[in-house]
User: Fold this.
Amino acid sequence: MTANSQMVTIKGTRDGLTLRLNDQCSFDSILEELYDKLSVNGVDDGQPMIRVTIQLGKRYLTMDQKEMLKRIIREKQKLVVEHIESDVITKEEAFAWKENSEITPIVRTIRSGQLIEVKGDLLLLGDVNPGGKVIATGNIFIIGHLRGIAHAGFDGNEEAVISASYMKPNQLRIAGQLSRAPDQDAEGVYIECGFIDKQDDAIRISPLQDVLKQKPDLVSFERRMLNG
Assistant:
């Protein structure tokens, strides 16, 4: 069998191993070749667990099929599957992705005891008063005062950010992390942004322009606004 006709290609990377699965053959053939290859290339018991990324190409697998892949890899080697990547998704997954990537614009003041919750990004033109709360699965952008509670990345997205013209919240939450605003008062009106600093693994507040340098993907927000 030539290299081009291999059904399973294993490549070492800085982060572990990448398994590329041929998307033009049957799933049973993939399992058979994967089983054989992992049986030949052993790993010593003393070595640490190796992280694995599986690339499916234009192949879609059910949850049961993914579990079969993971089980074979776990049983044959000291490997742990960290990611399974595919170029295709179901209609349901596409609709969920669309819903979670949309921007919901709201023009109002969120008063004490009121709650706004959206899927995707929230663009609020107004204030969040003390005792008010806004929640989004994506980013939160507030053109106004944030004095209440804001929770971005509600479904676990640690890349989400919270931005406000005046940042003095009761509480900030991003994914599962929690923080409060700094003690110092803001001078004038400028955009501040709360985000998870990967170095400190904690929520930090910085001017929006500084955050954009670290998170260039936020420019997609502008593109979606212009195209929407």
